[in-house]
Amino acid sequence: MKAEDYLDCKKPREQRQYLTTGDFSKLRTEGVKDIIDIITFPVVLPEIRLITVLKKISLSENEKITKRDLINHMRINEENKKIFGYPGEITSEKKVNKDERARIYAWLNQNIINKLEKDWGLINIHKDGKNSWLSLTQKGRDMLKYLDMDFSCEIRN
């Protein structure tokens, strides 16, 4: 049997030869042409806290999510605070003075927002006058689809 017998469509159907799935009596290949090494490379994924924020933003796609919303979710319980990795104390919003609020926003921008926007390109920041809100880019949606996993450290409401 030759490859031309399978590929030559000009021959009448009766003269063509076909391989059946159960026909292992005939040798299909012979020898090894070449051996090549398969290059391995590390797959780099965002930190779990960044993935968690992506998940939170994706759950809020229908409504605008702000940085304040993310900070409020950090406030809800200690587990959320640990997931985000905020080193300081987050008290209720009413007890926060101006300096502490600025420190929390600066930390959020530096450690979460900038990494997601500039380093990974997974979110967009939309400015609406004085206010801003976050949304996922197509790359961010694709990342979440790719990671489609059970978030054991999902943000608690």
Put the structure in a nutshell.
The chain has 157 residues and is mainly alpha-helical. It has helices spanning 3-7, 48-59, 67-76, 78-84, 98-119, 138-147, and strands spanning 123-128, 131-136. Helices cover 42% and strands 8% of the residues.
General description of the model:
This protein is mainly alpha-helical and 157 residues long. It is built from six helices and two strands. The chain has helices at residues 3-7, 48-59, 67-76, 78-84, 98-119, 138-147; strands at residues 123-128, 131-136. It has a two-stranded antiparallel ribbon with strand order 1-2. Helix 3 (67-76) crosses helix 4. It is elongated, with a radius of gyration of 28 Å.
